[in-house]
Amino acid sequence: MKGLEFILLGIGALAGAFLRYKFVSSTMVIGTLPVNILVVNVIGSFILGVFSILSTSFNIDAKYSLFLAVGFCGSFTTMSAFALESINLLDNKQFVLFVLNVFGNVGLSLAAVFLGRTVTLGVIRI
Question: Would you kindly state where each structural domain of the chain is located, as residue ranges?
Fold first, then answer.
């Protein structure tokens, strides 16, 4: 990895980690289901979906993928917090919320990537 690539990766990771921290520092719940991590994962997935189309459509240099896809989205979204949150729901015998959390994070994140790609393709074609 070259110096500039390393710097771009670091800046993206720092920005993503900072924004994730700000998002999850105040608890958001729907009923008793914590949704901070869900929101972060869905937003990050949408951004990644948009970038995946922009990077191929405009032949964006791979070093910017290190910045946004790997650095920013990698630090902004969080699989480990989602896993811990899910296990905590199981520990508290909140089985319905566990299922909602798992399907919400996985399903909505996949849908967000798809939506980001679809919207971006629609905008590019206009």
Answer: 3-121
Dig out the tokens for 39 from the structure.
Answer: 């929101």
Phi, psi of 78 (to 5 degrees): -150, 110
Measured distance CA(14)–CA(76) in Å, rounded:
9
How is residue 25 written in tokens?
């520092």
pLDDT in tens, the chain (126 residues): 689 999 999 999 999 999 999 998 988 889 888 899 999 999 999 999 999 999 999 999 988 999 999 999 999 999 999 999 999 999 999 999 999 999 999 999 999 999 999 999 999 988
Q: What are the structure tokens assigned to 78, written together?
A: 């969080």
The predicted model scores a pTM of 0.91
Which residues are 29's β-sheet partners? 34
